[in-house]
Amino acid sequence: MPLYSYQCTSCKAEFEMLVRSSDTPACPECGSEKLERQIGGLAPAGKIDGLLSAGRAQAAREGHFSNYSKSELGRLRKK
């Protein structure tokens, strides 16, 4: 599930969100679905592991594990 940057055209709020291709994101400030996807920057060196970990933690909270490898899923199931 990719992380996208958005700007709301209604209230001009800027935010990032993990979004499935089948989902329609909404602004966390005003709830509007009128959003413009922004060009995202690359993670600075040394931050990628933290971002990956945070994204996987959010995916686990939401109940999907599609971004884990088979070996990582095995370790998760043992916990």
Commentary on this structure:
By secondary structure, the protein is α+β, with helices and mostly antiparallel strands. The protein has 2 domains: 41 residues, Rubrerythrin, domain 2 (Single Sheet), CATH 2.20.28; 37 residues, no CATH class. It is built from 2 helices and 3 strands, in the order E-E-E-H-H. It has a 3-stranded antiparallel sheet with strand order 2-1-3, with no helix packed on it. A hairpin with a 5-residue loop joins strand 1 and strand 2. The longest helix has 15 residues. The radius of gyration is 15 Å and the shape is elongated. The chain starts with a strand and ends with a helix. The mean pLDDT is 80.
- Oligomer state equals single chain
Proportion of beta-strand residues: 15-25%
* CATH architecture label name of the largest domain: Single Sheet
| Contiguous uncertain segments of 5+ residues | none
Secondary-structure class:
alpha+beta
CATH top level of the largest domain? Mainly Beta
- Number of separate strands: 3
Biggest β-sheet strands, sense, barrel = 3 strands, antiparallel
Radius of gyration: 15 Å
Average of the residue pLDDT scores: 80
Overall geometry comes to: elongated
What is the total number of structural domains?
2
CATH topology of the largest domain: Rubrerythrin, domain 2
Notable features of this structure?
19% strand, elongated, 79 residues, 2 helices, alpha+beta, 3 strands, Rubrerythrin, domain 2, 3-stranded antiparallel beta sheet, 30% helix, 2 domains
